[in-house]
Amino acid sequence: MTDRDSAAIAVDRTQRRARLLAAAAITLRDLSDVFTPLAERFARHGHELYLVGGSVRDAVLGRLGNDLDFTTDARPETIAEILGEWAEAVWTTGIEFGTVSGVKDGNTVEITTYRSDVYDRIGRNPAVTFGDTLEDDLIRRDFRVNAMAVKLNPDGTQEFCDPLDGMDDLLAGVIDTPAAPEDSFNDDPLRMLRGLRFVSQLGFTLSDRTLAAITAMAAQIDRITAERIQVELDKLICGEHPIEAIDLLVSTGLADRLLPEIPGMQLTIDEHHQHKDVYQHSLTVLQQAIALEDGGPDPVLRWAALLHDIGKPATRRHEPGGGVSFHHHEVVGAKMVRKRMRALKYSKAMVDDVSQLVFLHLRFHGYGEGRWTDSAVRRYVTDAGPLLDRLHKLVRADCTTRNRRRARRLQETYDGLEERITQLQAAEDLERVRPDLDGNAIMELLGIPAGPQVGEAWRYLKELRLDSGPLSRDEAEAALLQWWEQR
């Protein structure tokens, strides 16, 4: 690179910096109704107030939301007093860590006293020590792009503060730590996973030294609770660039500690030899599922797309002639999903939904050339239940063949299945398939009390309803009596 090239790059970076800071200033001025009254109140009490961390980063990137982070030299009790005068509601659940929160006009504010923490490097929670300077507070933060601040003055003016050159990292699109990454990650290993989460959310890359430290220290993530890991994983997979972050999760070794089933798919070539391995196929399915989303990131769909084939390594069989099969991998995979997501402390609803999508993702391939009976279509809809729309997206995303003719045929076949579902739903209200007789009618007709026999009869009628469609009351009663006599 010539001196002229270097000079041109420096000029371009300076210009970009100026543009971003000017745009951020406009964004922050739009929040003067929040900032100025707060700054005035802190000033009257003799204290400074700074917007800090992710709020500053997002303001510069033009993505600032309604959750605002601040830091101050005021102690927590004073923060609570000031917020009590201004906010519509205040909560102090984090006051022992120096944090007091409040809400005002739809904005959530979180204000924390300067901290200069000490870590024992056994757990992840520090011995909280309140600091006296902004610089000491910023240097303890996870990454330099999160270590910028904006001083809020009582007269409404603002001053950009960047003692650690976080703006340089932001302009370069790099995630790096304020101090040595080994020290930062030893203090709090969750920062390794947070770094990958920012790759997903911001589209940035890890600095060489940060990547090397995470790879060398991946085992330290074992110090972190499953609940904290789950939160970061959800933010990672719901980012704008999850594929890159998942690749880093695998290449650094973090996935071996947190989600070993994902790197485990690298061992298995898919049966069509269309992709490098099942892992690469799963990333493609995830990307295609994201493209089908409407209404924002859907963590259930995204996890199902990523994990839909994790049962393949355990079901891999070499067939005569050199082929490879993965019979019943959807059944095995659904069980594996349940086990892993429970270990990560996901909610029962989340575990049920993701595992059910994994279990059902192959069902469509039995549809063939559209020869399913109405009964089979009803069962497909009933088994999917409220997950039907997600199942549609997952099945379509799972078509990754490079054979355009085959891909078009698969999509057209699924179009046909969706059309049949729509027709049956209009005629039969498939979303609420129930037996044609309720429990009271069953007890009255059969002359039996409430108990297991009523449930058995109800399930028979439910199966009959799925097989035959809606029946009249006379037809349902006749069928139930016949079943009862032959039972």
Automatic annotation (TrEMBL):
This is Putative tRNA nucleotidyltransferase. InterPro entries: Bact_CCA-adding_enz_type3_sf (IPR050264), HD/PDEase_dom (IPR003607), HD_domain (IPR006674), HDIG_dom (IPR006675), NT_sf (IPR043519), PolA_pol_head_dom (IPR002646), PolyA_RNA-bd (IPR032828), tRNA_adenylyltransferase (IPR014065). Keywords: Magnesium, Metal-binding, Nucleotide-binding, Nucleotidyltransferase, Transferase, tRNA processing. The keyword Cytoplasm does not apply. Gene3D superfamilies: Beta Polymerase, domain 2, cca-adding enzyme, domain 2. Residues 274-410 form the HD/PDEase domain. GO terms for biological process: tRNA processing. SUPFAM superfamilies: Nucleotidyltransferase, Poly A polymerase C-terminal region-like. Coiled coil: none annotated. Its cofactor is Mg(2+).
